[in-house]
């Protein structure tokens, strides 16, 4: 049964979903890493590509940008298409001094300024966290590689541009590793639907020192390490 944003039938979407933000990156993942790939939905240019990776059926599908966008797709995937696990794989800005450009962050939890952490239970702020089995498998896979890996909290912001200059130093003091725009929404959807989710990120720039002038080719090469860890998390 198709939804307003995913035009295919249950069974066309695999139980395991790889979810970058960029639709073009979802297509590249499908066409370069998966076999027997078919396009099963393409509503609003958000392609869903289903195939196999090392013999395991998976779907690569983009989330778009921001918590509202990823929440739409994650909700429909979990509630209507039998998806059990979604892993977000993307980029973030570094916050902590311990984090450098090109490092990998596995987001064990996500702080947010979004209402997604409070809207379902007024008066209660939900703890938005990754699924443990996925987290453990992704961390093990990432640490087997040649890049530094950090595990901890990230900040999912509703705003890419913000006048609140005090936010980042305060988050840094709390040990927050990086800032992005989707993890909290994904974790909230997984919690609500008793499903599993994880976010694995490549640090593409750093908010303190301004480092991160990476070429498109370098960004794509670095992305592959985080993708391998994300896939390991899906297969946990």
From TrEMBL:
Highest taxon in the source lineage: Bacteria
GO molecular function list: purine-nucleoside phosphorylase activity; uridine phosphorylase activity
Zinc in keyword set: no
A single BP term in Gene Ontology: purine nucleoside catabolic process
Bilayer-spanning residue ranges: none
Gene3D superfamilies assigned to the protein according to its UniProt record, in alphabetical order: Nucleoside phosphorylase domain (3.40.50.1580)
Record keywords: Glycosyltransferase, Transferase
Record-given protein name: Uridine phosphorylase
Gene source species: Tessaracoccus flavus
